[in-house]
Amino acid sequence: MPFRYAPYWLAALLALTVLGFWPGYFSILAKAPWGFHLHGISATLWLILLGVQSWSAHARQMALHRRGGMASLVLFPVFFAGSAGVIWSMAAATAAGDPFYQIYGARLATMDLISTLLLGYLYYHALAERGRVQLHARYLLATPLPLIMPIVGRVFAGFVPGLVIHGPHDFALFAWSVRLSSVVALALTAWLYVSAPRHGKPFAVAGAVLLVQTIVFDTLGATYGWDAAYRSLALLPVAPLLLTGLVAGAAVAWFGWAAGQRPRVRAVSTG
User: Fold this and answer.
1) Which among 175, 179, 221, 249 would be 20 to 30 A from 105, CA to CA?
2) 228 contact partners, CB below 8 Å, separation of at least 6
3) What is the DSSP string of 61-105?
């Protein structure tokens, strides 16, 4: 079974999440938009579930592992809908004139949209390849990689000298936090791929998509046309958007599960 120490890495990522998002989320929970809550809670539960799944597989607690797998079929659609919720909430903040999101709302949204598509791809293949342990584990453990950039980027922006944002006059520094966190995510993904290239397709795909995210942040995301289109998202009712995310996530889970079913062997009649 690969990645024996994955639960510890996931616990460290959770700790970094609390640290990085403490100033802008955890310390102001009562004021945070509901879309941030949906995304934060579902993403946190996803990381915890991945840790439990990795530990249970290594501890040969297969009954618990199977229950965790079934729980993922329910949690993933909520996680997927949470991604849609946070994208809408950022659009609403951008349209409302929030000074930070006026600059970065549309640019971050490009990354979030691409991350959501990547998550769907990885989870589908994790289910479809659940009979092949090496690929199954890697597809699942690749799902936190899109979270590395926003988490590490917030840590840089909150605590690393030279990148700390003290107020609106420092907002220009945040772009460098995103770029540097992208380097961290890409380096980690490359290391995971090199550790076992034979089974490295999940990390190769994730790395390619993370690179696209990094490029789009400073290109498409910074264009006037995309910014205007993104602001218009706030004018749409959020309920259908969340329902679409929930249905799309459920479809990923359903089709991924079906793709992983072993073909039934038909009995041959000798009569």
Assistant:
1) 249
2) none
3) -HHHHHHHHHHHHHHHHHHHHHHHHHHHHHHHHHHTT-HHHHHHH
Torsion of CA 254, 260, 264, 265, to 10 degrees: 170
Q: Do residues 202 and 125 touch, judged by C-beta distance below 8 A?
A: yes
Q: What is the C-alpha to C-alpha distance for residues 222 and 105, in angstroms, rounded to an integer? A: 10
For the chain, which residues make up each domain, given as ranges? 10-259
Query: What is the spatial distance between Cα 156 and Cα 173, in angstroms, rounded to a whole number?
Result: 10
Contact 124/256 with Cβ under 8 angstroms? yes
What is the arithmetic mean of pLDDT over 229-250?
94
Burial of residue 60 (number of CB atoms within 10 Å: 0-12, 13-18, 19+): exposed
Sequence letter at residue 226: W
CA distance 253 to 227: 32
> How far from each other are the two terminal CA atoms of the chain, in whole angstroms?
45
- pLDDT tens string 110-128: 999 999 999 999 999 999 9
**Could you report the per-residue pLDDT of 250-266, keeping only the tens digit for each?**
999 999 999 998 654 44
In the block, tokens 């459920």 appear at 250
The helix/strand/coil state of 233 is helix
Separation CA 108–CA 100 (nearest Å): 11
**Helix boundaries (H) for the chain:** 6-21, 34-58, 62-95, 99-128, 133-142, 145-159, 172-195, 201-218, 224-232, 238-259
